[in-house]
Amino acid sequence: MNFTSGADVPELLSLENIRGQLIRLEDTIIFLLIERAQFAFNHKIYEAGAFKDEIGFEGSWLEWFLFETESFHAKARRFTSPDEHPFTPLDRLPKPIIKPLSFPSLLYQPAASHPSVNVNSRILKFYVEHIVPGITGVGNGSAKGKSKEVGKDQDDGNYGSAATRDVEVLQALSRRIHFGMFVSESKFLSAPHDFIPHILSNPPNEDALAGLITKPEVEAKLLVRLANKARVYGCEMDADGRVVEVPDEEMGSRGKIDLKAVVGMYRDWVIPLTKDVEVDYLIHRLDGVPQTQIDEWMKGAKA
Ligand SMILES: O=C(O)C(=O)C[C@]1(C(=O)O)C=C[C@@H](O)C=C1
Prior knowledge:
By secondary structure, the chain is mostly helical. It has helices at 9-12, 15-36, 52-55, 61-75, 109-112, 120-135, 159-178, 180-190, 192-200, 206-213, 216-233, 259-283, 291-302, and strands spanning 236-237, 243-244. The protein has 13 helices and two strands, in the order H-H-H-H-H-H-H-H-H-H-H-E-E-H-H.
């Protein structure tokens, strides 16, 4: 989201604008997955300590890539932007070398900065355990992954290229999923009185909050659109630019992207984690808010 283009807060926080950003990020994520799928699974890059002697880093090759990339980006103030969340803990990253930009205050800070709202460790886990194997043909029964032996199809030695793509995919997924905070803020402000009783109940009523933010029809449309986009973006053309028809189930094995893996990723991980972010944000939405403001919001319920 371009927070500095002069757009006003109500415009930036409109559900239409935020959903537009989520739709645009679908394109980014699909293209980046197509790039990652060009390389083998390369399991070694996800094993903690596998390159310890070479890089002097206890974590995995990928975590080292994240640390090094994010250290550089932190200097350029990437993580001062409200929609950017590093995988490396902020206190291990360098400070920006230029003055931070001033952003309009869109999110409620006590909620946005609460540690439970950052789900990057869960993103890293599902990505490494489920998505990379899925798109590189390991363990999903596609032609690329038939062999259970670690052969050339599972380890092509392109550790730098694979991890570079992984970092890009992870950062895009993280932006997408943490956008849940903007969705939540928008929904909360449009009807605070609906949310307040469930936030204030002891313990907070997470199921009721999840019920309020869930929009099944939006999710259903998203999954159809995603499959269509993956089919179009991953389509093959001959040298004359004519589209070569490829059956959906063969797309993964033809070096493009496995449609089921992309749709399954959104259905099983991206949407549920976005909803967790939305609910966790709401749970802390009233932290430190004066009672007079809460009373004011509750008047809307009676009106
Ligand atoms: O668009 C919304 O209203 C959202 O909350 C985002 C989102 C999603 O992750 O795409 C999550 C929950 C809703 O059920 C629908 C879609």
